[in-house]
């Protein structure tokens, strides 16, 4: 189907009363992106989806309904020679070469071509969140902020830009880093509530019993970001905020208002680039998603 015909043939959603919220976690999404792939494969189409950091990449891929790109982004793509390393970090491009990863790979014929026509035809709205370094506020962007593909890609990059490891991103005169430094610790649950949702399916990238330990902010960190005290505070406060949001999500689960997908066999860190390990994690995530498919279908009424 041509781009023009796809844009003139809007797609449909079939989940209208539940928000899909996708947690970040860098390459831990090698496990949980399998859940998003399964939703695409099974035709489970939420009317609203929100994500922060790696979760924002999953949001973009879900909106384009691209199962291949959803998997590739957190598995085989790590073998790309331009993915990033200490050399690119010393060059100021990031340990993960973020401009390349998020913006330069999406064109036709590139490493991760993005199906923008399907994105345009998709009726679902979304929220992608990043942390504004000067003020400490969280900025959420939605479909109304996107007029061309680059608008989406640069916002996903901003949402995913880990301080120190990746350069910050300037958008409309403000400078942004990873949205996980915001008030929820990395869950777009506040954006989902603001959109009017009271029921949530949350794809999480930490095990059910995980508790984030207190942050250690070194003098190097304080010195590097001395002009951005709000960001240093965001780093310090993130564990408390993260643990508080998780507790809230488990309360919502107990009330029957949330379905929480929590990894059973997570075995990689957020910076893992070993493709063999990433493939193993994706396979484990796929198996767990398959086991939970009927329960998730029942939760969303399909």
From TrEMBL:
- Taxonomically, the superkingdom here is Bacteria
What keywords is this UniProt entry annotated with? Hydrolase, Lipid degradation, Lipid metabolism
Q: Which residues form the PNPLA domain?
A: 20-193
PANTHER family documented for this protein? NEUROPATHY TARGET ESTERASE/SWISS CHEESE D.MELANOGASTER (PTHR14226), PHOSPHOESTERASE (PTHR14226:SF25)
Q: Where is this motif: DGA/G?
A: 178-180
According to its UniProt entry, this protein's organism is Gulosibacter sediminis
Q: Place the motif GXSXG on the sequence.
A: 51-55
Give the residues annotated as active site.
Answer: 53 (nucleophile), 178 (proton acceptor)
Query: What protein is this chain from?
Result: Patatin family protein
